[in-house]
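ok so dumb question maybe but i'm new to this and my supervisor (M.) told me to 'just get the structure for Cytochrome b' and walked off. so i did the thing. is this what she meant?? sequence i used:
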Amino acid sequence: MQDDTKKKTTIEEEKGILGWIEYRLPIFSFLKHTASYQVPKNLNYAWNFGSLAGIALILQIITGIFLAMHYTPHVDYAFNSVERIMRDVNYGWLIRYTHAVGASLFFMVVYVHIMRGLYYGSYKRPREMVWFVGIFIFFAMMATAFMGYVLPWGQMSFWGATVITNLFSAIPLVGNKIVIWLWGGFSVDNPTLNRFFALHYLLPFVIIALAMLHVIALHRFGSGNPSGVEVKSDKDTIPLYPYYIVKDCITFGLFFVVLFAFVFYAPNYLGHPDNYIEADSMVTPVHIVPEWYFLPFYAMLRSIPDKLTGVLTMFGSILVWFLLPWLDKSKVKSGAYRPVFKKFFWVFAINFALLAWLGGQEVKEPYITMSRLSTLYYFAYFVIILPLLKEFKPSPNKKMDWKFDGITGSFDRESIQRGYKVYKEVCAACHSMNRIAFRNLQDVGFSEEDIKQIAASYQVKDGPNDLGEMFDRPGVPSDYFIAPFDSKEAAAASNNGAVPPDLSLIIKARHDGANYVYSLLTGYQNGEHDENDLYFNPYFSTGRLAMAPPLSEGMVEYDGARQATVENMAYDVVNFLQWAAEPELERRHKLGLKEGNMPNDNGKESFKGEKEWDLRNKGPGGGIVTHAKGARYDDHSDAARRVEERRRQSEQKKNEPGSSMKR
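this is what came out, is it supposed to look like this??
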């Protein structure tokens, strides 16, 4: 009889597909248990940041997986593969910007979560393990973020990896061996990039495992609360669903509003411009700084002259958190009921923000002294104050009115066309733009015939042909803009010893990009230069630069009534460079306003123009013509001479009798 009852109960439990699954894997019971989990009823919005951190982590993993599908972990291709994601992958710019901005917001959320724990005493008995696991999660986050910052292989990526990994050399006896092991060689190179890519992909799943332990430890004793008083009965709690789930949804919504506000309108605000410059081991940036979320600890590191002491201070600033359950001896958990503690805590929070700011400044006085004082207070707060409280400039850039600014910003195509003319007749004598193809000019209003004519005016070195020889041919629309020099050495020889930067990403590779470039072009002091032939310009970081004044009145002949003044030419060429750096800007803005047309699954709408060009423009052998490395203008061997000759011609026009430009 008992066996029959047991058999009947089993059959009832297995009724239907869901019953069959539930009997073998009680996932629905688990979800029901989670939804009915009792939570203190007095939790404020500061408690929402734990679940919000989980959402941010999931977002980073999803976007990271899609980026990994297109990323190439090789020092020769990493930078270009990131740009290919931005330009050629359907909505690649959206995925990449979401991942980059999401990392910053992830740290913002976690810092608020940590500050909440410090204020309300979340590290105190009996929740020490919740706190300890949280610290391990933070360490894993820092490692993941650092390795991810290296992957784009820009200047800050390379030099940041070099500086930070070198810190381990301060460890006595084994330091240098650790550094070589991290590098996979004797310098930061391809083995380093491959290791960092693998670990960057792995560590988020380690973070998920730690987060699960974090939640398990939390559920052992339940959540703390703002009062710091343990829950005594069920009347002091409410179920997680629907009350706190709805409350979490509010912060989730605000999080995504902030996230996509940055993604659509200021995606590079939280990044560093130097990371849009490809890594170069021979060129050290003036200031090597990490991402903003590492700046407080970086400020501590560099404020101390001794390397080993600085490294111990930096890591000790986080390790000291493990001692908090014993350093804070107050029987009152919540800072809400500790008025003296509250004052010191807010000074600590402001001091931490000050350290973040100091970490981004130059290593000079008074910033060094301020960093040392802030570091001193940081440690004093934990090891002295808490135990004692147991009882209770270059010139500012010119600000221009750009049509592409703002949430409804769009390109001024007429200005971009004029700007291209300025680039072609002036800037292209020295500067390359090797990420823009002639066919891309169709996006800003050039006709197909115009583009073919422009491309054909250049000679491109191609081959080998059937005889194994290289040959010159006229350019076609699918060719990329032709570089004026065959090598960096040739470029430096013609430009006062300095290599002119590629202009494809120059707007994004400079702080306040458009305003900075405009200010630089219009900021020369009447062509004055020093004894080293460096020209004075108050908008340049050092006040002097090797580039001669590139623009002069009437240097380019404009169609229509617009005068070719220095200001007008600078304005137009900046519009052109802005388009070159962010061709997706209009689409990004429209998508942000929910006005853009989503492409179909095959991306036909997005790449229609490119496919048409690829089919029309074929090389002599019948294959599609691609950019030939090393191709250049005819007769561009001495860029400086050509620019000076053009300037003299414009001055002669001014002095001709009856000239409209004569003042």
